[in-house]
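Q: My labmate handed me this sequence with no annotations at all. I'd like to see what the chain might look like in three dimensions before we decide whether it's worth expressing. Could you predict it?
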Amino acid sequence: MMFQNKNDQELVELYIAGKEAALSELIRRHKTKIYTSIYMLVKDEFLAEDIFQDTFIKVINTLKSGRYNEEGKFLPWVLRIAHNLVIDFFRKEKRTPVITNGDGFDIFDVLGFYDESIEDKIVREQTHKDLKALIQLLPSEQKEVLIMRHYGEMSFKEIADVTNVSINTALGRMRYALNNLRKMLQTKELSLRLT
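A: Here is what I predict for the chain of 195 residues:
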C-alpha cells in the first residue's frame, strides 16, 4: 500500500489500525526536522540519535495506547515530545545546551563565503565564535527560540507548539534575544575601542 499520498492524520489512523508501514512513512517524512531540532539543542550526534529514538518510542506508546488526540498536528506534537526529552536530559545533567563549533552541522559553515582573503576568513570565524559565545549568555527561553528558529529552521508556529507558548510569546522571545545580542555586540565593540 502506498502511503506517500496520505496526510499525517491519515497515516496516524492507519498506524493505529495496525498498518506498521504508516509509521515508517511518518518517520521518513519528518526525520530531518525532528533530528535537527534535537541536535541543535544537544550538539551531540549520539545523544541526538538516542533522544530521537526515545521520542519515537514515546510516540509509538502513545499511539498504541489510544491516547493520541493531536488531530492534524502530528509534527508539532512529536517536536514537543522531543523538546521535553531534551529538557529532561539537561535537568538530569544539570546543564544547559551549548552551541559549539564541533564536528557536527554548523549553519555558519554553509552560509557560503567566497573569494575572501585570509584576514576576512579570520575575522569571520572570530565573529561567529563571539556570536556563539554571546548566544550562551542569553536567558534560556530566548536562547531556545533563537536556536530553534535559526538552527532548526522551525517556524514560529512550530516553536510555539513545541515550547507550549503562544506565537506572540515566541516572537517576543526572539525579539528580546536579537535586541540583547545587539546590545552585547555594541558593548563588546565599545570595550574593544576603549582598550
